[in-house]
## 1
Amino acid sequence: MGKRNILVTGGLGFIGSHTVLCLDAAGYNPIIIDNLHNSRIEVLDALTSLLGYRPTYVQGDVNDTELLQGLFDAHRPEAVIHFAAHKAVGESVENPLMYYHNNLVGLITLLDTMKLKGCSKMVFSSSCTVYGEPESVPVKESTPTRPAASPYGATKQMAEVILKDNAWCEVQCLRYFNPVGAHPTAKIGELPLGVPNNLIPYLTQTVAGIRERLTVYGGDYPTADGTCIRDYIHVMDLAEAHVAAIDRLFSTSKQLDVLPGDPSAGVFEVFNIGTGVGYSVLEVIQAFEAATGKKVNYTVGDRRPGDVVAVWADTDKVNNVLGWSAKRDLTTMMKDAWHWQENC
Ligand code: UFG
């Protein structure tokens, strides 16, 4: 039997590019579509060097119906991993229509095409942002979601509803916690386009001398050291979770009728993709310094509006049902993030 083709939207992005490598290692054939909005074509060269062959790549947008239909006709993907979306919280507040258009219209266009072409399996990139400020931690998949704090968060919540309602589609919905790190070769990682919003790229750019000083957003939170707590997860662990989700779609699914059928036949499974351990911002800085021997120039400043105090994953379900768990620790995350920064 030939390799199964898996369409990877946003396959040149941070998480997408690492997932392409893991799909190949697991015996799948990744087919990439990416519009280069938040990625660079050089990532394709890096993937080519790591894979030993040039993966199939189409430059384009998931909002382009004609292009998508042609892609499905040419490659007949048996499943889709849908990464292609905007992801900057602040930008989504400034330009909500751009977020609703890209993240939701793009998803609907993709679903229309999948349905038309008879492809019913999808792994979807969701986010722990759907939990908002949780009443208690760790959060379980069954923890009720909270009203979104940003249009970006709202698009993830709405996308989950859209996918759940489309019962013909078999969905593995992965709620990512905070992805960090890079491939151990440092050939691919998180691209530094503009001033970073997220902690780790800002931190590594500060140490590299690109930024003067890292501001820790708030030192007066009700946590042990006063700074916010997150569940940081190595991007390679996260990428491997996508392969586990794809494997599950092929191993558990019955052949579903993609025409309107029994809505109860739908598959919509949600998994938390985190380590199950939370670290404060100051703990992350300490871990970085210990892992790399580099000092971080930082100051504790005001809180950032919209930040939740503390969130980390309950990983029981993903460990037991999906059979996946994170393997790389915070030290590895910091070393790989720094190695990538040095190679940028
Ligand atoms: N932080 C700082 N200084 C910085 C940047 C961040 O102290 O310069 C702190 C934040 O206040 C927070 C922690 O570091 O406590 C992590 O912040 P990030 O911006 O790295 O990530 P968030 O937890 O805010 O997560 C957000 C969205 C997610 C999304 C993620 C990656 O809520 O949905 O960014 O894009 F997935």
## 2
Amino acid sequence: MAAQLRHTPWGGNVSARSGVVYLVGAGPGDSGLMTARSLELIASADAIYYDRLIPPGALDGARDDAELFYVGKAPGVSSVPQAEIGERLIEAARSGKSVVRLKGGDPFVFGRGGEEGEALRADGIEFEIVPGITAGVAATAYAGIPVTHRDDASAVAFITGHEDPDKEESALDWEALARFPGTLVFYMGVKRLAANAASLIEAGREAGEPAAAVERGTMDGQRTVIATLGTLAETVERENVSAPALIVIGPVVQRREALAWLERRPLNDRRVVVTRARPQASGLAKTLRGLGAEVVELPAIRIEPLLDSETVRSAIERIGEYALICVTSPNGAHLLFEALGAGGLDARALAGPQKQQIEEGRSNVGTKTGPVVAAIGPGTARALAAHGIAADIVPERFVAESLVEALAAVDVAGKKVLVARAAEARDVIPEHLEGRGAEVDVVALYETVPEEPSPEAIDDAQRADYVTFTSSSTVRNLTKALGERFPGGARIVSIGPVTSEAVRNAGLEVDVEAERHDIDGLVDALLLDAKSEPGRLGRSIGD
Ligand code: SAH
């Protein structure tokens, strides 16, 4: 179990130490609010014990061989008892593992981190605490409610609204809380809201004081309802606010009128379906989420590498002979280098004796040696750059025809050319190059195969405002996979004419077509459309 050594800008070795338990806060739900330290530890831990309320994708960075254990407690569902969690952490640490115990929010704020730390100390196990952003601070901030304010609140109290049911007497001093000169924030406060509010009012807190409930703070579908201390329980019940939710009481709640920001984001309240294959989807999904959209990932295709073929092996063996290498997708770029790696080679294999001068203005060849490398677009060029290759030719528009145009500057007659691409790609580029007298090797590095969408994702997609398509293969596969369950009411956004054609062939209508045929162009087109189209989720309620 060799811990990975990782080095940070501040120079330390931050890998998880073996035999140590890290009690780590994962923040309130938005994966962007996880700390750098938590991500480092997740990336290097041998074993991770995680709770229910951790952000989606929080464990994506874990090692492939890390052991992951769910030890969460869903309300009303039997779960791993607290004592057993402690025992398992101790056992894992004793066997020399580096252990991350990942909890929602902050481990010491209503997270039982204190108890777990005590149990570890009692058994002589070393631990470290990694704080996380607690819901009381995060959900409120996302709701536009400042927990303190110079004019309204000089103090804030974090209170549990749901105590240990075994306790005989309430530990909460309602008189003290009623007198508390500042904001009251209740965690776990929905179930007993009516009783707790009544206790506060009875103890002298003003029934007319502004109060809010923030549901699913920082997560997809965050919702804030506003009322007063006296009416909040009724509002929460009527609006069906459910856990996780935070109750906030105090004049600061009114500041939301001026400070609400989440609901102002351009794609707030819009549900957008992303149909790209998973590894590519993340960039688009992130951009859309950043604009406020709720994203449903419904990948219609999956990339299957085809590196174990005779054509690939022989192309890699002769990689030094090519005068020109054309790469037609980011996947192609990454897999080309994977294939080189499999052949015991790396980027140096591309440094050969050939050198071509390409027409002024079209090239950045300079004094580079080796083949001319052409990328179909900026994304592919970036993927090549990640492997140390600065593409010589990158057309502005990324369709095969533009690359063909740009290749006019390269002398290919009688030369060997490699086209690295997907199995089912169009033949525009090889045919053009052959027409100009090149000896072309077309090498399929991967194929795209249909992906079976999950029933949950299909359900989530039904109320989508938009379905985005970035290639014709996703259109064909998704419409086939969904059939009747294709979300009929959603507007269809296509990346460009070829994809639009596929949409129409599938019997659907294109509502929006991007002017620039790349991901940014698609997002711009969607944003423009969203300005004039109302959202369907209708979530901004209560105030
Ligand atoms: N350790 C966690 C709190 C765990 S107690 C932290 O520091 O945030 C669980 C309670 O926290 C929930 O019942 C709810 O009241 C609150 N909570 C956690 N995540 C929340 C979220 N995303 N939005 C609103 N409340 C949340």
